[in-house]
Model the fold of this input.
Amino acid sequence: MAQSRRNLAALVASNLLGGVGVASGVAVGALLAERLGGTAIAGLAQAASVLGAAVAAVPLATMAAKAGRRRALTLGYVLAVAGAVLIITAGIVGQLIVLLVGLGLFGVAQACNLQSRYAAADDVPADRRARTMSIVIWATTIGSVAGPNLTAPGDRLGVSLGLPELVGPYLFSVVSFAAAATVIGLLFRPTRAAGGVAAAAAAAAPPRAAQPVGPEPTAPAPAPVPSGAEKVGALAALRWAAGNPRARFAVVLIASAHAVMVMVMVMTPLHMQHHGMTLELIGIVISLHVLGMYALSPVWGWAADRFGTVRTALAGMAVEGTAVVLGYIAAFGDSELTMVALTVLGLGWSGCVIAGSALLTAAAPERVRVPLQGATDAGMNYAGAGAAALAGPILALGGFQGVNIAGAVLLVPAILTAVLAIRAGRAARVPVDESTTAPTPH
Done:
């Protein structure tokens, strides 16, 4: 138990540092790309970063399953340090390709931040998973809110050191990612590599009736997998999820919600700059957005454990839908409403990701769980990368109104899979939020 608390503290600290590193550069990535390549490709900055997180997700999960979460997360943060250094180099030499490669490696930090929520859930019983995940996600609040406000000071620091404008904030990223790698490498000692003591204890304990938590009963832990069993890869895990309505909804929800958030968020700094707003104001708006993403995550985690993951996911989708409506109205240059819209967007994202992650972890048997988590994070970031790449042309052609309309469209797949999951549960006479597991694929 004491080691579990130390592990949670290490994950909280690394997420805080990782949040500083990501957020201190995210507000200026699109601006730097626009300077090197023009408005139409400005979205490629976020696309490259999110794509880097997507590409890294499955290898990091595979490494976590084989060598442990500690090595996987440490390596990820080291790669992010290299990415931040490349971004600084790109600003100095004025090369867009170098910038995009650097942003791709930079995005690996986001993959680490995301996978650390699953690392926290490895060591807790099923009835506390959502809350434990939300604590790790919440830890990103401090770093991610402080990060964008380091944009202007970082820019001034960079200029004072002879660096080009918009490059200085990435100096903070280098230091933050290096510190996160050090914390994980030295302090994080998982009790089981990506498996979790909770599942092992449940498997070893004598059978007993499942104890309900609110309206969402806790399913019995799946039986331990024999050591000689065939390994399950990411594609096999996704094929299993495609046949399980609840898991399919979780996978699609996480990808769709993330794509909506990225689509709108990445174009907000450009929209604000085009309306004459200052870099300081842009930093404040992004900070409020990130505050919405993380600050209330424990509330979403409590709601998922108390009222059920599906119901909480539906609430998160409703909040995110409200955000794009507000963003559409704010597109005419209303800075105050833009702040509100971006904050609400972050709140909706938080609800969707926390509820979806808890639903995914509960629905998947242990043998499938880690590869499916990695594949889901990869899909989440691929969806975000695609949304970011499309956001620039959409902004150029349809303005910020078009960006928010596109965001609303991206939410449709999650709505459809939610309907199918609820219908499947009713057909099987299973309560909407009853945790179930299906047979393991072969």
About this structure: The beta strands are 212-213, 216-217. The two ends are 34 Å apart (CA to CA).
